[in-house]
């Protein structure tokens, strides 16, 4: 039961986050380093990948692949977290938090999300 709850929460988390890329893209654009190129394309790709991987967790035959995909995606998101710290963890007219929160996201929350994905890979 506990493992199922964790699995469904994680699937819902990524599906919700993925759809949020489409409902509120202006939130994400400033978080994407400009040197990556097309912010719109990257935001759309991130949203689609999060939705697909989140749904993939719900299918036992796809779960391991989806979990590894989430881990890879989270690793790919690290430059955005570093960029957010580099710009002072504050975006004008957007997300603005104390710098320690930016570090907390990078060195604590992000690894916990990776561990969470790893924990549901079986089953």
Description:
Helix 3 (39-56) runs antiparallel to helix 4 and helix 5 runs antiparallel to helix 6. By secondary structure, the chain is mostly helical. It is built from six helices and no strands. The chain has one domain (2-119). The mean pLDDT is 93. 74% of the residues lie in helices and 0% in strands.
H/I helix tally:
6
- What is the H-and-E element order? HHHHHH
Shape: globular
How many E-type strands? 0
Largest sheet geometry: none
**Mind telling me the C-alpha Rg?**
15 Å
The overall pLDDT, averaged over residues, is: 93
Q: Could you say how many structural domains there are in total?
A: 1
Detail the poorly predicted runs.
none
Which percent band covers the strand fraction? under 5%
Helix and strand layout, with pairings?
Layout: H1 2-23, H2 25-28, H3 39-56, H4 60-76, H5 78-86, H6 99-119
Short description:
The chain is an all-alpha fold and 123 residues long.
Characteristic key phrases:
mainly alpha; single chain; about 120 residues; 6 helices
């Amino acid at each position: 039961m506990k493992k199922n709850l964790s699995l469904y929460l994680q699937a819902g988390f990524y599906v919700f986050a993925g759809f949020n890329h489409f409902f509120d893209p202006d939130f994400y654009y400033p978080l994407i380093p400009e040197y990556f190129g097309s912010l719109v394309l990257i935001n759309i790709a991130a949203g689609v990948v999060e939705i697909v991987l989140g749904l993939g967790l719900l299918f036992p035959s796809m779960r391991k692949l989806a979990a590894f995909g989430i881990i890879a995606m989270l690793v790919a998101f690290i430059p955005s977290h570093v960029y957010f710290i580099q710009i002072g963890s504050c975006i004008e007219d957007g997300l603005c938090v104390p710098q320690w929160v930016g570090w907390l996201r990078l060195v604590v929350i992000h690894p916990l999300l990776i561990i969470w994905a790893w924990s549901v890979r079986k089953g």
